[in-house]
Amino acid sequence: GYPERRGHAGPGHDPALRDLGSGTGGSEVPSLEEYEDLCSLSTLTEDTILAALRQRFYKHNIYTYASGILVAINPFKFLPIYNPKYVKMYNNQPLGKLSPHIFAVADVAYHTMLKKQENQCVVISGESGSGKTQSTNFLIHCLTALSQKGRSSGVERTILGAGPVLEVRG
Ligand SMILES: Nc1ncnc2c1ncn2[C@@H]1O[C@H](COP(=O)(O)OP(=O)(O)OP(=O)(O)O)[C@@H](O)[C@H]1O
Q1: What confidence tens digit (pLDDT) does each residue in 101-119 have?
Q2: Ligand 1: which atom is nearest the Cα of residue 138?
Q3: 64 is in an annotated binding site
Q4: Domain boundaries, the chain
Q5: What is the pTM of this model?
Q6: What ipTM did this prediction achieve?
Q7: Which residues form the signal peptide (predicted)?
């Protein structure tokens, strides 16, 4: 499990990341039924999983963990959760300590690579239009931001530029 996993998240946790982009100004009381990790659900059925994801999505929390897997629901609109502040916030944090986020996955892959000196792999799957390319871009953005070299060498632009070519080639 996660070293500092919160599991069932109640009100008052991690105020910096609660209900991002919901426009409620934080005045809305978070529901006790809001789970950041689907493994914390007491009853695990398709219905309870979808209900938990739906409830989070309505509050603009598009990311939810299923243990070490990140479930992302395409919001089809801009959410202000990808700026450098968030790269910094997730830097060197154990998975599950902060709210679920694609930057948390990137950060864990990056730091595990450094620690173990082994290549890491992030598998992104989903149906067409679900946000795989966008998620890949966010991952690369975070990885290059975490790497000092990435910032000066323009490697993010180079990798992102290669994406469409690779997609065309299947
Ligand atoms: N996290 C996100 N925030 C905002 N918009 C998003 C996000 N993820 C996806 N989108 C929107 O959804 C659209 C489709 O996403 P994307 O192209 O990443 O899907 P895909 O899974 O790669 O699709 P395909 O398999 O057809 O290539 C994007 O152009 C973008 O407008």
Answers
A1: 999 999 999 999 999 999 9
A2: 1
A3: no
A4: 15-168
A5: 0.80
A6: 0.98
A7: none
